[in-house]
What does this fold into?
Amino acid sequence: MPRIRLLLIFLMFSAPLFPQKFEGLALTPPMGWNSWNTFATDIHEELIKGVADAFVEFGYKEAGYQYIVLDDGWMAMERDADGNLQADPQKFPGGMKALADYIHSKGLKFGLYNCAGSKTCAGYPGSRGHEYQDARKYAEWGVDFLKYDWCNTENLNAKGAYQTMRDALYAAGRPVVFSICEWGTDQPWTWGAEMGHLWRTSGDIVNCWDCEIGHGNWSSRGVWPIIRLREGIRRFSGPGHWNDFDMMEVGNGMSAAEDRVHFAMWAMLASPLIMGNDVRSASPETVKTLTNKAVIAVNQDKLGAMAFLFSDEGDFEVWAKPLAGEEWALVFVNMSEESRKLDFDWGKHPLEDGLHHRRVQLDKEPYAVRDLFKHRDIGTTATGLKATVPAHDLVMVRLKKQEN
Ligand code: GLA
It folds into this structure.
């Protein structure tokens, strides 16, 4: 065989010569749990093992949650004599490899946090100048997911810094979902798909419906301010590269109705579904919301489209998400402080999504309507949608074309 042909065959079957992100990962939004929202830096081995056990015991794993991610605070304050990161010996006496093995033994995946700067946001050793060394360590420990933050990054260029870590992970050889946590400052949606699999769109979430809390040069935001902040970035999201609206606050103090809306909206926005509550002690109501498979199926839909605000009916906001196979998901959210009657006339609202080339006149070609929280078929779009919806609650439906 001529040499040139041999070379071509080699190139076809070998890894790409140039570093890149790991392709073929996160083709639907990643699902898992992260320690930060509830535990901040107060994390330890027994807690994390308990979370892995809870994934199996309470049905999170079965519902599709996979990644268990340790956020800031897992490291010792200093690197070792060779410059390697090390787990905090008090919090994680068994070390990271043993913890990863435990998580893997349950059929789950293991994630860690670090930062592009010299130190993490909580002051632990950052990866700046150690990217390749840290990536090798993660591969040795069995890390499957890396959340990479943006504190203490003076003079660093965001795209370049994330590219360096991406290349380091690639060189280390273990496939890793790379989670960009740069808070939207440098418009990561415009370059993030090349560098990683998801990118945060805002500063940190806080457990409220509609609040914004200033912290000097940044703000934490509740559910609706986070959504409103980035209404224009829909087109950047899709399979393998997601707008990340932050870890969820379901189960962390909002009402059960507000939690349902929060969860449904994250599903609609095709955001990663990363739980941020104490999943070991969640109430049955919280578990029910977080493991609602019909809602999760909307999030995990293969088309990977992000929802858009379809109609503003005053007290009701209606959001629509096109799904694979010509189906649709819609939510009708009662934004008011009181119970409201919903009376939605499908005929007045052609459902149209230019981005995915869809248009349907729902009263003329009726679709079957299924309620995704009540788990019932509730008629077709030939007639209007009527319901009484409590304050800050919703109706979520899936529309399926009827066979004629
Ligand atoms: C930043 C991130 C948070 C969390 C903390 C940890 O604020 O945005 O999600 O990771 O750092 O210190």
